[in-house]
């Protein structure tokens, strides 16, 4: 987890006590050892106040005083940096971006103040927000947040928990009263509220309290909990109090015991069946309905351009639940509706060709696509000319990607459901009593008035969809329409004005009706959906299912959207990745694992740090085989792992992803195996299949290094490149060869490179470059000493001696 710790100056450095600083450094270090990514912000404390008082007496203005204060916070930050030594950034970052970069490098950014007028409390919140921290801890000199100042009022009582808004309300009067001191200043409180940042205010005098609050959520301070926030994953299943979620007034009773049907509460409200793996909790809820066989699991999207990884929430979440149900002996049918009678409202900027490669709009016939605006996806030709329609093109891409992940899905075209009459009974029911449909939908949609008809017709003149339906004839099963175009977000698509008659099969239900109609005709028992639907079409869908369509809605699961490289996935902004692209970098089981994690948690897929995701997967795998001793992870791993891998098999070998990237610099299979052996990843008795499987990761890590052009994107030269060096350089290389031959690890070699250069009076940079020439025929490369430490000693020595 990512966490920011704000340590008050008076907590960290009341005097200049090195033991005390060391204790905080060790606490922060232990969080990192526990796989936390930690950012630290340090305050100025009483020393800062002394400086400020002295300067004020000298007549300094407020800005100057603030700068003095900032200076002291940075001094304190440097003290803590001294305690953390090379684990921390060498200097306090002065920008959030630099702090974020340090974090991604695996360093601990330790910041002080940034600008006048802003306390380090506020810096801590801004840092937490900018790096997407799950938790912010204020280690203060008070025990938490009080209703009134405990210093001056013995009646003061401490809050156990507050919402961010309540925190602001508490701090405002304290901020007004110059004498009172709030545990968190007003700007910081407002920023917490704005960012919905989960925070803890605690007594920081004992650094161990920071550790247990971060790792377990245990503390005696005040929790600041945004409405609906989940506890950090690693705290386990501690329940989080939340606002009463009374989103649905229809109050559906789920078979699992009358729990509120809000999808938000699905997992949390069923403590009897609380499981370590969300898919089992969902399967429990499905089981409790005594479903007919086969159980039907559905996903679906509107085929709008590229089937990207975000769409795979719809497939993978369903698949993982399907696998749990299959394990329990059920017959399961996983279907996927391509909601392809939806009209094209906007020409996407990016498309994918039939090989799945991303293609810019400029490379296809954009003009003809532009003319197709407002038409159903199934009525639009495939811009690549291969498939029968735009919709079919998209659906086949999606199906191929599902197959790449070994997930069998049955694709269903919604247009087919209209054209082949499957929807007829639902259309009869909805359009047979338009008033009833109108009454049910009206509370959910402002645009519903007495002329509203829940049907969009396809204009027989221009082929566009129109929502202006002026009359319905249920007996003839027709509607009268006027082609008025449609609203497409920020603009409108004009209609042709034609007035005509369309049959029930020549149009579509609006989405809010179409979705429950799909549940009815397909008999859907479970459907995952994005959080946008959770507040929109899900509550109305439940109502329509019960009161118009007459079907029980499926068991819901809401998934959070994940972001890609910190930004929302968006075809229009070009921030997308397809399954196919991701599988060039990751093994299918790692991608499946990505979706096996808790769907209610917003996550970022940071391509530059895929190594972390792979490490996480490897750990998850070891936890399944009980090799981690992590009691929190093991139950989840035991339940989910068998559904994530093709085959549970003992004795698998996983090369750490970054090591695989190192091996990727070597273009020689045999050498790769030797190196993996010498690093202890492959044992003498490792079977051949395990070696072959392990080596599969190398090609992916190599593609990653190439794409990222990161520290692993170099190619080790199998043959000695043509090189000429000065006499001093050759002498230094010979010395270094001696040193390596004597047997030293990478770190020792790295510092020896510096020493050798100095000894021979060489510029250190030039000497490194000589090394890169020798090994990579390049002027730059990875951390040379460590890389050479990973290689076979004999190879390195021979090369340093320029003998081969
Ligand atoms: Zn028309």
Brief rundown of the structure:
This protein has 804 residues and is α/β, with parallel strands linked by helices. It has three domains: 2-235, 3-Layer(aba) Sandwich (Carbamate kinase); 262-455 and 504-613, Rossmann fold; 727-800, Arc Repressor Mutant, subunit A (Orthogonal Bundle). It has 31 helices and 25 strands.
Provide the helix percentage. Answer: 40-55%
Largest sheet: 7 strands, mixed
What is the gyration radius calculated from CA atoms? 31 Å
Spans of at least 5 consecutive residues whose pLDDT stays below 50 are 237-273
Mean pLDDT: 88
The tally of helices reads 31
Tell me how many strands there are.
25
CATH architectural group of the largest domain: 3-Layer(aba) Sandwich
> What class, by secondary structure content?
alpha/beta
CATH superfamily of the largest domain: HUPs
CATH topology of the largest domain, what is it called? Rossmann fold
How many domains? The number is 3
Shape: globular
- Bin the strand percentage: 5-15%
Main-sheet strand order equals: 3-2-1-4-6-7-5
What is the CATH first-level class name of the largest domain? Alpha Beta
Bound molecules: zinc ion
N- to C-terminal separation? 46 Å
């Amino acid at each position: 987890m990512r966490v920011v710790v704000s340590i008050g100056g008076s907590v960290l450095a009341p005097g200049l006590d090195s033991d005390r600083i060391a204790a905080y450094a060790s606490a922060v270090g232990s969080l990192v050892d526990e796989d936390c990514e930690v950012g630290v912000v340090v305050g100025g404390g009483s020393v800062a106040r002394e400086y400020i008082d002295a300067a004020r007496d000298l007549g300094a203005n407020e800005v100057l005083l603030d700068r003095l204060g900032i200076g002291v916070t940075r001094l304190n930050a440097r003290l803590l940096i001294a305690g953390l030594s090379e684990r921390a950034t060498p200097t306090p970052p002065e920008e959030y971006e630099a702090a974020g970069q340090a974090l991604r490098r695996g360093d601990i950014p330790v910041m002080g103040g940034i600008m006048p007028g802003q306390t380090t409390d506020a810096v801590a919140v801004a840092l937490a927000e900018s790096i997407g921290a799950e938790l912010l801890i204020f280690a203060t000199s008070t025990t938490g947040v009080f209703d009134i100042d405990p210093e001056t009022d013995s009646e003061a009582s401490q809050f156990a928990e507050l919402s961010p808004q309540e925190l602001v309300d508490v701090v405002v009067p304290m901020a007004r009263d110059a004498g009172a001191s709030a545990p968190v200043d007003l700007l910081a409180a407002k920023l917490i509220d704005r960012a919905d940042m989960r925070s803890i205010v605690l007594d920081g005098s004992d650094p161990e309290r920071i550790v247990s609050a971060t790792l377990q959520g245990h503390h005696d301070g005040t929790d600041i909990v945004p409405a609906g926030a989940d506890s950090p994953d690693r705290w386990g299943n501690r329940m989080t109090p939340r606002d009463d979620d009374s989103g649905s007034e229809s109050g559906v009773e789920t078979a699992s015991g009358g729990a509120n049907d809000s999808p938000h509460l699905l997992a949390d409200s069923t403590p009897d069946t609380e499981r370590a793996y969300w898919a089992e909790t969902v399967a429990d809820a499905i089981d409790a309905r005594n479903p007919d066989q086969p159980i039907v699991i559905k996903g679906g999207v509107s085929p709008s351009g590229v089937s990207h990884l975000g769409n795979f929430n719809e497939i993978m979440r369903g698949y993982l639940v399907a696998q749990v149900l299959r394990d329990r002996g059920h017959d399961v049918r996983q279907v996927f509706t391509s909601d392809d009678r939806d009209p094209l409202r906007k020409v996407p900027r990016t498309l994918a060709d039939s090989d799945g490669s991303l293609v810019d709009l400029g490379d296809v016939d954009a003009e003809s696509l532009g003319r197709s605006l407002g038409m159903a996806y199934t009525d639009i030709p495939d811009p690549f000319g291969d498939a029968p329609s735009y919709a079919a093109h998209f659906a086949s891409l999606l199906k191929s990607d599902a197959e790449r992940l070994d997930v069998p899905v049955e694709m269903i075209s919604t247009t087919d459901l209209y054209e082949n009459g499957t929807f007829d009974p639902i259309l009869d029911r909805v359009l047979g009593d338009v008033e009833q449909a109108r009454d049910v939908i009206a509370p959910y949609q402002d645009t519903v008035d007495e002329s509203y008809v829940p049907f969009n017709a396809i204009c027989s003149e221009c082929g566009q969809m129109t929502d202006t339906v002026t009359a319905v004839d249920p007996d003839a099963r027709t509607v009268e329409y006027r082609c008025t175009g449609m609203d497409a977000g920020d603009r409108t698509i004009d209609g042709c004005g034609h007035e005509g008659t369309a049959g029930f099969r020549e149009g579509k239900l609006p989405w809010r009706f179409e979705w429950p109609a799909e549940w009815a005709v397909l008999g859907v028992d479970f459907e995952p959906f994005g959080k946008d639907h959770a507040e929109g079409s899900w509550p109305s869908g439940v109502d329509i299912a019960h009161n118009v369509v007459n079907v029980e809605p499926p068991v819901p699961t809401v998934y959070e959207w994940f972001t890609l490289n910190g930004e929302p996935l968006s075809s229009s902004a070009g921030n997308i990745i397809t399954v196919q692209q991701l599988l060039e970098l990751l093994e299918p089981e790692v991608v499946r694992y990505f979706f096996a994690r808790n769907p209610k948690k917003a996550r970022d897929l940071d391509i530059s740090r895929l190594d972390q995701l792979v490490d996480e997967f490897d750990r998850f795998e070891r936890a399944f085989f009980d090799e981690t001793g992590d009691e929190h992870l093991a139950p989840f791993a035991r339940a989910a792992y068998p559904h994530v891998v093709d085959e549970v098999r003992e004795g698998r070998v996983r090369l750490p992803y970054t090591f695989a990237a190192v091996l990727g610099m070597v273009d020689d299979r045999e050498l790769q195996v030797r190196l993996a052996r010498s690093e202890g990843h492959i044992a003498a008795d490792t079977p051949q299949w395990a070696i072959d499987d392990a080596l599969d990761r190398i090609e992916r890590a190599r593609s990653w290094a190439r794409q990222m052009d990161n520290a692993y994107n170099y190619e080790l030269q199998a043959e000695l490149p043509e090189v000429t060096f000065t006499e001093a350089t050759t002498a230094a290389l010979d010395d270094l060869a001696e040193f390596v031959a004597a047997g030293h690890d990478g770190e020792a070699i790295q510092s020896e490179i510096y020493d050798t250069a100095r000894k021979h009076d060489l510029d250190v940079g030039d000497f490194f470059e000589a090394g890169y020439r020798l090994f990579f025929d390049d002027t730059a490369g990875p951390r040379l000493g460590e890389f050479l430490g990973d290689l076979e000693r004999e190879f390195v020595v021979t090369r340093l001696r320029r003998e081969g």
